[in-house]
From TrEMBL:
<dbReference type="InterPro" id="IPR011009">
    <property type="entry name" value="Kinase-like_dom_sf"/>
</dbReference>
<keyword id="KW-0723">Serine/threonine-protein kinase</keyword>
<dbReference type="GO" id="GO:0030246">
    <property type="term" value="F:carbohydrate binding"/>
</dbReference>
<keyword id="KW-0472">Membrane</keyword>
<keyword id="KW-0812">Transmembrane</keyword>
<keyword id="KW-0245">EGF-like domain</keyword>
<keyword id="KW-0547">Nucleotide-binding</keyword>
<dbReference type="Pfam" id="PF00069">
    <property type="entry name" value="Pkinase"/>
</dbReference>
<feature type="domain" description="Protein kinase">
    <location>
        <begin position="528"/>
        <end position="810"/>
    </location>
</feature>
<keyword id="KW-0325">Glycoprotein</keyword>
<keyword id="KW-1015">Disulfide bond</keyword>
<keyword id="KW-0675">Receptor</keyword>
<keyword id="KW-0430">Lectin</keyword>
<dbReference type="InterPro" id="IPR008271">
    <property type="entry name" value="Ser/Thr_kinase_AS"/>
</dbReference>
<comment type="similarity">
    <text>Belongs to the protein kinase superfamily. Ser/Thr protein kinase family.</text>
</comment>
<feature type="binding site">
    <location>
        <position position="559"/>
    </location>
    <ligand>
        <name>ATP</name>
    </ligand>
</feature>
<dbReference type="InterPro" id="IPR024171">
    <property type="entry name" value="SRK-like_kinase"/>
</dbReference>
Length: 815
């Protein structure tokens, strides 16, 4: 009896609950009456459209407990995407908040203390409210007794526009701040001066910057019910904007167009009857490259999609990836779009009154290829070598990064250095920009200010302990002996560990060449997948790499791009020859890679770049250093021609192939590679090896070449060292060809004209004339008239007298 009564009551309670749920559902999907309200406490209670496609209510904010948005969202799909939300100044609200349809025709949002947070605006005046409703279009409306809309969400869009919605000349879309924060963002879609544009806004004042994309002229944006986005022009005719190559299917798909938080206007679709695992598909978006849009447009103000001091790179076709450059870190680790801050904090003593850096030895440069900040320039050097660019930025307290344009790929053949200061704006990473490298000035890792601060008490205590122990040990010969043994064991263990570390490098010592053999994978890791390019030449491309300290930390990895196809034996033979050369004026070969189709050579890294950058930059090198460099090159060539086991003819002597180490010692590079080079891989005529201006005449006469081709090239380069100008300069009408002009000056007795702007050289005119005579002997058209490099070395060192040279040309060009 009791059991039967209990079950009857239980059934009655369930039935009543179902009835109430059905009534609530009917209310939720019907009209909203005056006085009806929703509470954030009851998240299951919403006002739904008749079809159930859209819901109006409190939407929980991801990652924020008991925080909600008063919003409209897609209700039938698992990915319940928000299309509108209220109170954009401060959209998040607490659990006990509620929204009510008032008798005055307003939606009113209040917090738990009954304080008004937001209310809907009225489109009409003196209208009596009838009801409100969530429509199947996604539009929430408040209707009056005469069926006019007092308010509708379509007239106050946030970041999204839906089919049947229009955006007129006074309307706009404003992006959210980021994926999880719904406050006002920094991008705007609006009409301006008759055009639909995208622009960034100032986050503090809301004022717009210049547009970064302009669509078409018009006065109304229409998202029609068929799923096409159109622009209505001045004549009232609509023109399809999107999608371009797809036909919308509104019966089987939902559509929305959203101004994403990173500034891209995107048209999305989603199946109405998902089978599981679907996501919003992108049908169309603009701009195509948000990172590049700010650079290619008039939008020079603002901080770009990634914020200040950051670098933007396009990923997944439309969404930017934001990274911080060397010496910087994210302002907010959880949001990479907020920008980056400098890790190093400057101090008043870092800068001198004249703006120069105090203690520039505390800084170094971290290079990054393909990076640029187009709108942060405050200084420019042109022409400029890498050394000059680094030095200028290093000494300038305002300089945070310098952008160097590679002179070898510059249209005019001159390098350019742009100096940038903080904040850096609109940074981008573009692998198509191959001619620029960003040099970021950062403090050296071993110059931390904490190490330069007041003495650490613990260090003082340690010193005292060591002193006491030393005294105690000194009192006993036995203890001293034990102490020495312990120290020896420690050093022995450290040495063994170092050997193990070097042996752990996945490479081997080739017994035939006495060089270390590397795998291609090793060199990919060492060069960060061949990221930082040092230069290009006839033999291939050179990249900067990093290996363990036994190699001097940095190395230069030359990737031979076109080598002779005689196979591994020919390659190893030449590498063996190069590996057996040892001279202070030759770049040292450290190892090689001979794997499949890959042929690479690993050289020691030269800190001060090439002689070309040193000679032809803005600042003229000192005369004495130039003399030292000329002598060093001559000694290196003497070794190649006469002193090493196998005679080596370089075939391409020029300033670009002379590298300078940290003490400006000249070292010849690319020697011994001529046999590896395919015959047509040259910069002049087929079959001729060398570079225009430095090529000996016998190359053109189809006669056998000897070491004298290097002597000729050295003579041309010696003239460049004397004059600090290139051997061929089109802009100098009176002295286009350096060899001809130099001989004319010698014959006319006006040697000082060669160094007319060089006071140091003019004061040593006897030495200038001696070098000029050596150069003229070297560039004789008849190779038998040219001296050997050993004789040239002795002439330069003053060991033998330089005789008067004859005219170097078989036909005197001056007659």
């Amino acid at each position: 009896m009791i059991s039967t009564l209990f079950h009857s009551h239980l059934f009655l309670l369930i039935l009543i609950g179902m009835i109430l749920w059905i009534l609530a559902t009917v209310q939720a999907q019907g009209n909203v009456s005056v006085g009806d309200f929703l509470s954030a406490n009851d998240r299951n209670m919403t006002w739904q459209s008749p079809s159930g496609d859209f819901a109006f209510g409190f939407y929980p904010i991801q990652g924020e407990k008991d925080r909600f948005l008063l919003a409209i969202w897609y209700a039938k799909i698992p990915e319940r995407t928000i299309v509108w939300y209220a109170n954009r100044k401060s959209p998040a609200t607490d659990r006990d908040s509620k929204v009510e349809l008032t008798s005055t025709g307003h939606l009113m949002l209040k917090d738990p203390k009954d304080k008004e947070l937001w209310r809907s605006e009225s489109l009409t005046k003196d209208s009596q409210v009838s009801h409100a409703a969530m429509l199947d279009t996604g539009n929430f409306v408040i209707a009056s007794n005469n069926s006019a809309n007092i308010w509708e969400s379509f007239k106050y869009p946030t970041d999204t526009i839906l089919p049947t919605q229009e955006l007129d000349v006074d309307g706009y879309l404003l992006s959210a701040l980021d994926e999880t924060c719904y406050n006002k963002g920094k991008y705007q879609l609006r009409f301006h001066e008759g055009s639909l544009i995208l622009n960034q806004i100032d986050m503090f004042t809301g004022k717009p910057y210049n547009n970064y994309l302009s669509f078409e002229t018009g006065s109304r944006l229409i998202f029609n019910k068929s799923g096409h986005i159109q622009i209505q022009n001045s004549t009232g005719s609509p023109r399809n904007l999107a999608p371009e190559n797809a036909v919308p299917k509104p019966d089987s798909n939902y559509y929305r167009a959203t101004l994403d938080f990173y500034g891209v206007f995107t048209l999305y679709s989603y199946p109405r009857n998902p089978s599981g695992g679907e996501k919003w598909s992108v049908l169309w978006f603009r701009p195509r490259d948000i990172c590049r849009s700010f650079v290619d447009s008039t939008a020079t103000l603002g901080n770009g999609p990634c914020g200040y001091n950051s670098i933007c790179e396009l990923i997944n076709d439309r969404r930017p990836n934001c990274t911080c450059p060397p010496g910087f870190s994210f302002l907010d680790e959880n949001n990479p779009y907020t920008g980056c801050k400098q890790d190093y904090t400057s101090y008043p003593g870092d800068c001198n009154p004249d703006g120069s850096t105090n203690g520039e030895d505390r800084f170094e440069f971290k290079p990054m290829s393909f990076a640029d900040f187009p709108f942060s320039d405050y200084g420019i050097l042109k022409p400029a070598t890498e050394l000059e660019c680094r030095q200028s930025c290093l000494l300038d307290c305002s300089c945070a990064v310098a952008i160097l344009q590679d002179p070898t790929v510059s249209p005019d053949g001159n390098g350019t250095c742009w100096k940038k200061k903080l904040p850096l704006s609109n940074g981008r990473f573009d692998r198509d920009v191959i001619d620029r490298t960003a040099l970021f000035k950062v403090p050296k890792s071993n110059t931390s200010r904490t190490n330069q601060a007041t003495p650490n008490p613990s260090n003082e205590n340690q010193n005292q302990v060591i002193l006491i122990l030393s005294v105690l040990l000194g009192t006993s010969a036995v203890f001293n002996f034990c102490f020495l043994v312990a120290i020896s064991l420690i050093f022995f263990c450290l040495y063994q560990r170092r050997l193990q570390y070097l042996d752990a490098i996945p490479s081997r010592r080739d017994l035939e060449t006495h060089l270390r053999s590397f795998t291609y994978k090793d060199l990919e890791q060492a060069t960060n997948i061949f990221k930082e390019e040092l230069g290009r030449g006839a033999f291939g491309t050179v990249y900067k790499g990093e290996l363990p300290s036994s190699y001097g930390n940095y190395v230069a990895v030359k990737k031979l791009e076109k080598f002779a196809q005689e196979g591994e034996k020919e390659f190893k033979t030449e590498v063996k020859v190069i590996g057996q050369t040892h001279h202070k004026n030759l770049v040292r070969l450290l190892g090689y890679c001979d794997e499949g189709e890959h042929r690479l050579l690993i050289y020691e890294f030269m800190q001060n770049g090439s002689l070309a950058g040193f000679l032809f930059g803005v600042l003229r090198p000192s005369w004495q250093r130039r003399l030292q460099i000329a002598s060093g090159i001559a000694k290196g060539l003497t070794y190649l021609h006469e002193e090493c086991n196998t005679q080596i003819i370089h075939c391409d002597i020029k300033p670009q192939n002379i590298l300078l180490d940290d003490s400006f010692t000249a070292k010849i590079s690319d020697f011994g590679l001529s046999k590896l080079l395919i015959s047509n891989n040259t910069r002049t005529l087929t079959g001729i090896r060398g570079t225009k201006g430095y090529v000996a005449p016998e190359w053109f006469r189809n006669t056998p070449v000897t070491v004298k081709v290097d002597v000729y090239s050295f003579g041309v380069m010696l003239l460049e060292i004397i004059c600090c100008r290139r051997c061929v300069e089109v802009e100098k009408e009176e002295a286009t060809i350096l060899t001809e002009w130099a001989f004319e000056c010698y014959r006319e007795g006006i040697v000082e004209k060669l160094v007319e702007n060089d006071e140091e050289a003019r004061s040593d005119v006897v030495k200038v004339e001696m070098l000029l005579k050596v150069a003229i002997w070297c560039v004789q058209e008849n190779p038998f008239m040219r001296p050997s490099m050993r004789t040239v070395t002795m002439m330069l060192d003053g060991a033998v007298q330089v005789p008067t040279p004859p005219c170097p040309f078989l036909v005197d060009p001056m007659i």
